Amino acid sequence: MIEILLLTVALAVAFGNGANDNFKGFATVWGSETLPYRRALALATGATVAGSLASIWLAHGLIARFSGIGLVPPATAGSAHFLLSVAVGAAVTVALATRLGLPVSTTHALIGGLIGAGLGQAGGVVHLSPLVHSFVAPLLVSPLVAAALGALAGRMLKRPDPQADCACVVAPASAVVVAASGGGAALAPPALPHLVVAAPAECDGLDTTVRVSVSRTLDRAHVASAASICFARGVNDTPKLTALLLAAHALDASVSVAAIGGVMGIGGLLFARRVAETMSRRVTRIGHRDGLGANLVTAALVLFASKLGMPVSTTHVAVGSITGIGAAGGTLDRAALRNILLSWVATLPLAAVVAYAAAPLASAIF
């Protein structure tokens, strides 16, 4: 009976995770009106589920980190009562934040759940020292690194002339006859093809072999970068939730990953709108180039952390990169950012309190 309840609550965490996190990669895409909401949501969901499935090969190290081993005694870490308390703490916290439209970290909620459940189930025996290097340091440093890189990317991607939307390769000129010394004539070598970036009207008068729109190319790259973030988030978050199922021997690894990924997708499709509004419209105004820079920073950091087994928060990294862009451009909404930061501060202790309260109830009922 408790295994079934654990499976249900763990999937509820995945559902809330999808509702809170799935759209974050496409926040800048919708905010810059590159794509309408429904189309952006569909792409975000597909990329997230694909990342979830890929996590089997790319991020197996995170499963061990979120099993509770090292924080509590091994016997407690494998207890269904302990894992149920962890899942309840995380599920309640993420669901509340999603209802309020606040983008929080499921990673923080799970860590809070591990601490609270450990205090409630293991007689207060929780080894917090592993948290410093394995959990706290990456979670604290990652948004700061993302903000710095986001500001740098924003400056690098700024376009000097907004009207220069045409990039074209100008055809080489034919060989021409030129005067030579001594009164003779000679053939001058033809010029080489060269790249010109100018206003479309200026490109119209050139003999071009290749011509592309800079803005349309950047839009495509922006969407691709958003999909890469959702893919990276699926890779990074799925193992954390899968650990709840594997530690209790509820399902095998492949089935657990597929179940978590599918439920995350459904949660995003149904309830992503509130957090999407906050990320896309309230933190800052972001243009197409800025959004591309922020997304590339987020995707690179999350994938790099996943490969190293570092439990960074996609939320923290994404908000950090967007904040860096907004701060560099002077368009940051400090009030909205303050609310998000306060929700981050509250996530871990709230999850810990709920998990601590759920621990004796789980032991008493089952």
Distance between the termini: 8 Å
Low-confidence stretches: 174-178
Order of strands, main sheet, comes to 4-1-5
What is the count of structural domains? 2
- Give the DSSP E fraction (strand runs of 2 or more residues): 5-15%
Average pLDDT score: 83
Largest sheet: 3 strands, antiparallel
Radius of gyration over all CA atoms, rounded? 25 Å
Task: Label the overall shape.
Answer: elongated
Helical residues, percent: over 70%
Structural class determined from secondary elements? mainly alpha
User: What kind of oligomer do you see?
Assistant: single chain
Total beta-strand segments: 5
What letter string, H or E per element, gives the SSE order?
HHHHHHHHEEEEHEHHHHHH
Tally of individual helices: 15
What does this structure look like?
By secondary structure, this protein is mainly alpha-helical. It is 70% helix and 7% strand. It has helices at 2-21, 27-31, 37-58, 61-65, 74-77, 80-100, 106-121, 129-156, 200-204, 214-247, 253-271, 273-282, 288-308, 314-329, 334-365, and strands at residues 166-170, 176-179, 185-188, 194-198, 208-213. The strands form 2 sheets. Strands 4-1-5 form a 3-stranded antiparallel β-sheet. α6 (80-100) runs antiparallel to α7.
Q: What is the strand and helix layout of this fold?
A:
Layout: H1 2-21, H2 27-31, H3 37-58, H4 61-65, H5 74-77, H6 80-100, H7 106-121, H8 129-156, E1 166-170, E2 176-179, E3 185-188, E4 194-198, H9 200-204, E5 208-213, H10 214-247, H11 253-271, H12 273-282, H13 288-308, H14 314-329, H15 334-365
Helix pairs in contact: 1-6, 1-10, 1-11, 3-10, 3-11, 6-7, 6-15, 7-15, 8-13, 8-14, 10-11, 10-13, 13-14
